[in-house]
Specification:
By secondary structure, this protein is of the alpha/beta class. It has a single domain, classed as TIM Barrel, CATH 3.20.20.150. About 40% of the residues lie in helices and about 15% in strands. The strands form three sheets. A seven-stranded parallel β-sheet has the order 6-5-11-10-9-8-7. Strands 1-4 form a two-stranded antiparallel ribbon. A two-stranded antiparallel sheet has the order 2-3. The chain starts with a helix and ends with a helix.
Length: about 290
């Protein structure tokens, strides 16, 4: 479906969209946020991005919608997808790096050779195409101590980060929860991630702070961001619990979080990474962008 078809399914003839008590199979979407579809301009103080994997639609259709909403980036995509979004005037705020998956990261020395091979391939391509950040993962513990995992990650990352420094690309390790979604994942607390950033000691290695994941693991989101923003290069959103819309169906107040991020001086992307549960995924995406547009 094209953008205009997606919107018309719930907003025929209406200049303003107010979502209120929209029943779905599994939940009720209730929000008091009202905005004018395609007419209310973004303030321009926040750079908005969206993660492709959350939307079950062709990349071209998501890119068309993003362009109309005012989103500047589509991310967590592969190099083959970069030219597609570029045709819509969009950037890739965060690229995929390795295809080994989240459980198989830098904390396992047996992965180091293959990870280096894959990042040696993607980093120069990213630099050439103007992609500034590439994601990476710690991997699962598998009985390993956090101290040993920290040491192994630092050793495995060293040649990768040297290459990233050469090409001006940031490698960003994502903080994920090990309680609900990624059982046994090692980089599951901000403090551990910060210790690794300090150990690597390069401006080209930072953290991807996923607000959804860290609310589950630690809470105290705003204070954590304020105290550790210098270690963070990127942010992802998501409603808690469930990783769905970031409106008042969940426990986080995203306008305050987005303002706290902006107040640190951050000028990178804030990426919507929630799985739409409402009847219209593009409408949910647009709502999320406006909630964070502080």
């Amino acid at each position: 479906m094209k953008r205009r078809q997606l919107l018309s399914s719930t907003a025929k003839g209406l200049g303003a969209i107010t979502i209120a008590s929209c029943s779905t199979k599994n939940s009720t979407l209730i929000t008091d946020h009202t905005y004018t579809a395609n007419k209310e301009k973004l303030k321009g103080d926040v750079n908005h991005s969206v993660c492709k994997w959350c939307y079950n639609m062709p990349l071209e259709e998501l890119a068309e919608a993003a362009q109309e909403i005012g989103i500047k980036s589509i991310e967590i995509i592969d190099p083959k997808d970069w030219p597609v979004i570029k045709n819509y005037g969009l950037e890739c705020g965060m690229s995929n790096g390795s295809n080994l998956g989240i459980p198989n990261g830098f904390n396992e020395t047996d992965n180091h050779a293959e990870l280096l091979r894959q990042y040696t391939d993607v980093i120069p391509k990213a630099a050439e195409f103007g992609v500034k950040q590439v994601i990476c993962f710690s991997g699962n513990r598998n009985g390993m101590s956090d101290e040993q995992g920290l040491e192994n990650c630092a050793v495995g990352l060293e040649p990768v980060i040297k290459l990233a420094e050469k090409h001006g690309v940031i490698i960003s390790m994502e903080l994920l929860n090990s309680k609900v979604d990624h059982k046994d994942y090692m980089c599951d607390h901000t403090a551990w991630g910060v210790e690794l950033v300090e150990k690597v000691a390069s401006p080209n290695f930072k953290l991807l702070y996923d607000i959804y994941h860290m609310q589950i693991m630690e809470g105290d989101v705003i204070r954590t961001i304020q105290d550790n923003h210098q270690y963070i290069s990127h942010y992802h959103t998501g409603g808690v619990p469930g990783r769905n819309e970031i409106n008042d169906t969940q426990e986080l107040y995203y306008p305050a979080i987005a303002k706290a991020i902006k107040d640190t001086g951050y000028t990178g992307f804030i990426a919507q990474e929630f799985i739409p549960k409402g009847p219209n995924p593009i409408e949910s995406l647009e709502e999320g962008v406006h909630i964070c547009d502080v």
